[in-house]
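Archive maintenance. Older records in this collection stored only the sequence; we are now back-filling the structure field for every entry so that each record is complete. The fields below show one back-filled record exactly as it appears after the update. Entries are processed alphabetically, and PF11026 family protein is next in the queue.

ARCHIVE ENTRY
Title: PF11026 family protein
Organism field: Leptospira interrogans serovar Grippotyphosa str. LT2186
Length field: 122
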Amino acid sequence: MDLKKNETLRKDDLFDSSSLMNPLSFNTPGLLFPAISLLMLAYTNRFLGLASLSRQLIGKFQENQNPDLLPQIRNLRFRLSLIRHTQSSGILSLLACTSCLTALAFDLQGIAWSLFGTALFF
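Back-filled structure field:
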């Protein structure tokens, strides 16, 4: 009988939230800020390059009416929309990371861990 009670207690201890997660410090989500900003900078540079190329192809198409340029222009527009969505995801990650730091300031560890996971997901 005593062994079953001890086994039950051990199982309950496994599901105790304090034993599963270490406290989150300000340093951990703070490390995401430079990574997110560098990704946003890279995507912005890529967006500007593709937008410039797209404008050039549209100008050539308006001059020559070359039908071979239309698939290229469509492809560039699709790639630009993908980059816009990726930038939106980066903004959501930045907001989740900022919210995580706010939750840490109020010592809400569970919410902070959830927001940190959300920031990593986006």
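Update note: The mean pLDDT is 87. Residues 31-121 form one domain.
Entry marked complete.
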